[in-house]
Structure formats: structure tokens, C-alpha cells
Design a protein that fits this description.
heterodimer, A: 102 residues, alpha+beta, three-stranded antiparallel beta sheet, 3 strands, elongated, B: 271 residues, alpha/beta, 14 helices, 8 strands, 40% helix
Amino acid sequence: MNLQRLFGGRAAASAPVARERLQILLAHERGLRGQPDLLELLRAEILSAVSRHVELDAEKVIVRMERGVDVSTLEIDIEVPNAAERYLAASRHGTNAAVTIR
Amino acid sequence: MAKVLVVTSGKGGVGKTTTTAALGAALAQMGEKAVVVDFDVGLRNLDLVLGAERRVVFDFINVVQGIANLSQALIRDKRLENLWLLPASQTRDKDALTEEGVSKIIAELRTKFDWIICDSPAGIERGATLAMRYADEAIVVTNPEVSSVRDSDRIIGMLDSKTARAEQGEQVKKHLLITRFDTARAARGEMLSIDDVLDILATPLLGIVPESQDVLRASNVGSPVTLNDAGSVPARAYTDAARRLMGQTVPMMVPTGRKGLMDRLLGRRAA
């Protein structure tokens, strides 16, 4: 026990810090609520759109969101089997797509 | 009309099972017919806290699977004739609990009891979502501590979206129960205050239960705290909370635990 506390002095109160951290965090988390399904929805729609033209393994469609302060990045990674190359012959852009949204 | 309550929190170790047992016993002591239902499949403990661990023959899952009927699985408390327990199964198969099974059992319990109190497991997985699924009201148990408050906020969001009531466009009435509160530490700014927690979670307060030896002592001997020492501070807090659930107006008491200089010199903890 330190002397400051023994004589009724206050060590820097930590509760206000806890309160402030929680308020900031929860404001952010409440904003995200209801959104977790957004990625699943995007994944399903991308899968269905691409599947109309190329045969895909549903497991190989990965949609990821990275949140930054000013900009968030939406990364869509679709692995296309080699047998599908003939479908893509017209546009030889490769098999990966990355999209950045603001 | 029967009321289904879920006691939930997200975080573990905050006092859900203690609260379920204490509120069930308090309601039974006031003449209400109450059943406490353990949803923690694989890790049941409500039987132990109620001192009924050696009387479990059939459990919730046995009833869902049709191996036993409900009246065979219900255990009547030896001290309170109005208090009953439906124990959880110790099976490791978490999928044994189905939404249809839970729905059927809750509907049957509604015909037999005034209060059905569902003790949720920690976490946000199947057991926790099923425990809240058919609730009319929810008691969110929170400790004045950052991780507990954060998890409570998440659980409040789930109560507003994942329950049968929410899906029908209705509300699950939510109550906040702050447990393990230490008035002296909150006064010194070492612990979130009641107002802090209420501000952050914006949920009506059902009661404040202080950190207390009486709670541990009651669980040691397998007796709900409201029964083991009805005059103790936590027992009074739980009894008041039960009265509020019944619609009575009871003034909110903030447990006092302010320590004097001698206590601080001797490093005593608040009782």
C-alpha cells in the first residue's frame, strides 16, 4: 500500500479512462452491427455473378474487409480453376481481382 | 400468465448462475411458482449451486429426445416447494439442443409455472442464443469492468435482433443487473460507477449486488443466497430485484461499503 492512498489521496482514477475507452469502442461496434452479414451477402452475389460464366469452387471465393481510419479496403480473392481458362481467354487479365472502395 | 426470463451476459464468471438461483428462490419464497432451467449443455452447474447435484436423473436433452417426459426431469427443491430445476445435460454434443426441442419444452413449462428462468451459458454460440430465443424479458448481468460491459452491449444487440420476439417485431424487455459491485472502489474512481454503466448500456437498472463473501458461502453449501442468509446484503439486493420483476416499486439501494482509515491500514476488503 502506498502512502498516497493511505492518507486518502487519490492515485489517478482509472474509471474515467475505462468509461471513455468503452464509449469510443461501443460507438464503433454498434455501427458495425447488422453489417457482419454484408460480407456474406457480397460473397454470395459475387459467387453467383461469376458462376454464371465460370465454374467456381464456392469455398475459393474470399471476401475480406480491412478497416482503416480514412479508407477501408475490400479485397475479393477468387480462385479460378485452370480448366476455366478458355472462358477467360478473351480477357487475359489473370485470375485475381482486387477492388478498393472508399 | 407465465413469463420467460433469460439471465445472460456474454462474458463468463459475472454471476449468471448465482443470479438465476437467487432470483428463482426469491420468487418462490414470495409464493410464485418458478422453474430455473440450465442451458449450459456440457458444463451444467445450476444443480450444484442449488444443492441438487445428486438428485439429477434425467435432463433437458433427455426430454428433447423423448427418453423422459418433463415431469420426470424436473427436480423440486427440498426447501422451497415452489422452486423447480430443469438440469442441463452433461453430454459433449452441443447440437443435441435443437430450436424445436427448446420451443416445445418452453411451451410446456409455460403451462405449469409463473416464471421460467433460463440460465444462459457464456459466449454467443448456440446455447446462449437458444437460452434467449423464447424469452419475454432478459436480465443482463454485468460487472463494472470493461470486458463485461462490452460483452453486455453485444448481448443487448442480440436480444434486439436474434430472439423470437425481435423477429416478430416485438421487444424483449431488458433489465440490467450489476453484480460484484464495490462501492468504495467506485467512489475512489477505481471502478466504473453505476451511472457510468447505465450511461453506456442505456438499459434500465434492475438491481445492484455487491461483491460479497455471502455469495461464495451460499454456493459452497449449495443454497441460493436469498435462502442461505436472507438478511445478507446480496440476498436483500436479489429479493428487491425479484420484487421489481413482479412489478413492485422498490427503492434502489446502493450497497454501502465505504472503508475507513483502519480498514485501509489493515488492507481489509469490503464485505
